[in-house]
Request: fold
Amino acid sequence: MSTSSKNEITEVTAIVRARAFVRKAGIDRVPVDLEKYAQAVNAEVRFSSRLKPGEAGSTMCVNGRHIITVNAADRPERQRFTVLHEIAHVELDLPSRHGDTLDADMLFSYAKRPPEELLCDVFASECLVPHEFLVRDLKVAEPGFPFVEQIAERYQASLSCTVSRVVVNSVVPCASVLSQGGYIRFVAYSASMRERRFWITPRIAIPAGSVTLQSVSVGRSAGPSQVPAYIWTSQDVLSDLELTEDVRLLPAWDQALTLLWFEDAELPRNRQDPSKVEADEDVLLEELDGTLSWPAKRGRR
Reply:
């Protein structure tokens, strides 16, 4: 797959190029060393107490060297993501759509983010939670947010960043959903969930009957709980099944993180003629190698 043109960059190519960049930077442990990433793109990271509250960071190029300035008052996991988001613009050669300064509203508001910024988010997440190390941790994983929270602490990453990477690297049918302001803004799928064509419609209201909507209504994280699959997807072959829903609220950003997974080891697979399946990023994502599963549980909760 050619990635020579910025117009050809998709979520899949951003992931593939991020994994190559991790190797290029010589990352050999977690939490990752930001200095190694910066050196790989001829950048210097500076922490400033002069940035206003809500300003996550900025980047400028001086004599061919990229100067990344990060708000010294921000939480460490937010600072780390800011640095890698800015590095993503350099490495992917994608134009910045947030101007000279990356503010917190742009960094965390998925309702307002242009495609270029979302691609840089994907790249940054892959670099912050590298595939090579995550698959090792997944060998002892248990489904649910307690495991995701442990990984977030180990990798010094935000919960929203971590849950999407855990899901993408799992072969157990699972998905993560980021909702903001009562609407679905971003969905990540495991390869096996994509294989079963389990799709969640973006930009719609949080589904009625979901644990997520109940959690948002009362302002409290909830789960895990069993819910009918048809609440989240219209895929007929899955509609009579149940899945597990686990929810964490991020009240500072009016966001909810939802983790969905099927606990049954045997689920119906899509029977569509492969010749009729479009070669889009949903199919190509299944070709990413090295995925590991969460151990599936047969028992109901």
Observations:
- The first helix runs from residue 11 to 25.
- The chain has two domains: 6-128, 140-287.
